[in-house]
Amino acid sequence: MSEQKINQVQFSAETMELVQRIIKRYPEGKQKSALLPVLHLAQAEFDGWLSAPVMDYVASILSIKPIEVYEVASFYSMYNLEPVGKCLIEVCQTGPCWLRGSDDIVDHLEKKLNIKVGETTADGMFTLKTVECLGSCGTAPMLQCGSDYYENLTTEKVDTLIEKLRGSDQRSTYMKSNMQEI
Amino acid sequence: MARLLEHINVPGIETFDVYRKHGGYKSVEKALKTMTPDEVTEEVKKSGLRGRGGAGFPAGMKWSFLDRKSDKPRYLVCNADESEPGTFKDRYLMEKIPHVLIEGMITSSYALGAKTSYIYVRGEYMYIIRILEKAIQEAHANGFLGKNILGTDYSLELYVQPGGGAYICGEETALLESLEGKRGNPRLKPPFPAVAGLYASPTVVNNVETISAVCSIVNESGDEYAKIGIGKSTGTKLISASGHINKPGVYEIDLGLPVEEFIYSDKYCGGIWKGRKLKAVVAGGSSVPILPADLILKTAKGEPRLMSYESLSDGGFATGTMLGSGGFIVMDETACIVRNLWTFTRFYHHESCGQCSPCREGTGWMEKVLHRIEHGHGHMDDIDLLVDVAKKIEGNTICPLGDAAAWPVASAIRHFREEFEYHVRYPEKVKNPKHFELEPFRSEKVLATV
Lengths: 182, 450
Description:
The structure holds two protein chains of two kinds.
Chain A (H helix, E strand, L loop, with lengths): L12 H11 L11 H11 L6 H11 L3 H8 L13 E6 L2 H5 L2 H12 L12 E6 L11 E3 L2 E3 L4 H11 L10 H4 L3
Parallel strand pairs in A: 1-2
Antiparallel strand pairs in A: 1-3, 3-4
Helix pairs in contact in A: 2-3, 3-4
Chain B lengths: L15 H6 L4 H9 L2 H11 L11 H6 L9 E7 L8 H8 L1 H15 L1 E8 L4 H16 L15 E6 L9 H8 L23 E5 H13 L1 H5 L2 E2 L2 E2 L1 E8 L5 E6 L2 E2 H6 L13 E5 L7 E3 H5 L8 E2 L1 H4 L3 H4 L7 E6 L4 H15 L5 H18 L6 H13 L7 H25 L1 H4 L4 H4 L4 H7 L1
Parallel strand pairs in B: 1-2, 1-4, 2-3, 7-13
Antiparallel strand pairs in B: 5-6, 7-8, 9-12, 10-11, 10-13
Helix pairs in contact in B: 2-6, 2-9, 3-6, 5-6, 6-9, 15-16, 15-18, 16-17, 16-18, 17-18
């Protein structure tokens, strides 16, 4: 995907129709409001991250300047500006999760996947990240993968989860499935 | 008595039909068919309802500031960017009983004269967005959204907007920037959103729980709602309980419930886990001052501390705290105050938008200094240095994120200074990240060895 050029980047017809419907939610001329949802769609469609050609493509669809896309994509933590594994594992580490043992979950994942936080496994399957509060403090410790929350984690539950996720691709699950019904 | 969560355990309550069977959407019927928009606003004013997102500003008063003379369209925007550490009540409400929010949005939009409204949900809550989209579709199909709702001349479109992962977008002007497709940089006020908000039009931004509470206020009347609670803390409040307790979760309480009952009663938190002792509580989300066990259970005057805006703030920041978002984080005797604070400060550093230098730089320095104290590399001077940095952030930024980062630091040192000193004195003992789990901190021990 790093070899992408803007003329090779194109949403599927289905996604494009969805994009057009999203743009209609805002007053005329305010199509820039669609930027955050469209970036989620782009990330889901193009391997889970936003390359420069993908961002340029989004800019062209919304009739805004590429810099307006870059500055937004780099501001919000959910947009990945580098390639990620097929399963991006995001472990919450803020106070309430830490109190219930999130450090143990991170340690366990590092050992199990044989990578450090911020790294991707050699087979491109898993990327491990720590994140700040995901609003799951009452069910801590927790992690997010794709659009799913996995809560009240123990090291055993993590083992089962990793085996379940192995071989799957969670990058495209994020946005598409739910917005199609709008 | 439960208002928002009254029917939470009814099977299928997340669907329109079941929700409707249990009295759902009555407030829309009542408001649109028998009340003027101003009469609805008047009821909200009478109810004494205060903003449930954290600031506690009277909701009716906020509504009354909306510029009704402007010829621009008006907007109601629901703040569902729930990101304050320790807070997960809005998520629970939207997941379990989404129609209460949709109903509240319709009734409130009618009161404010909004024809288009948005619910801005934090992007990580994607599965919640799915639930809300479905609820909106159902409301549409049943004539509660769209053109000429219930045959009246009132029309409303309601949309869900996903965020991109940024705590700062919970600040209302940052949220509006984000909804316009920009970075979440808070705006300088004035102008306030009530005058120039979304697309520079008059806008009200309210929290999920605030908007949801409007349903019972309209159904029962503002005066009836105001009878619940204590003093100026009217109504019920959702409390997100987390940390070292037996029963973490979301509880709807009548404001005024004693804190001791909330922590120890089996109806709520069910006491401290593993038979341990209570050490400290952060009562209203990570931003509010931390209090040690004695001060969270009783005020400095020795009166029982209550779950209300006034009682929790009794004593000011010297001996009190704030109700905030109702994110109630409990710590047992093995919790390390320094490490917990370090995670909070790391959070604020990560989430600072970077606009104001006191916050952008100050949060980074506080994180670094706390990291070194926690990891056994601190100096005694670092403790006052932290207090100094916190003081220089507080009040010197565009938005309250700076204050939110400063208060936890200042309060932790105010109430637990000896624990910071212990970290500096005994670097070897704190090198194990679980130091106080091995041996809980006892302040008299420090005194004995000095």
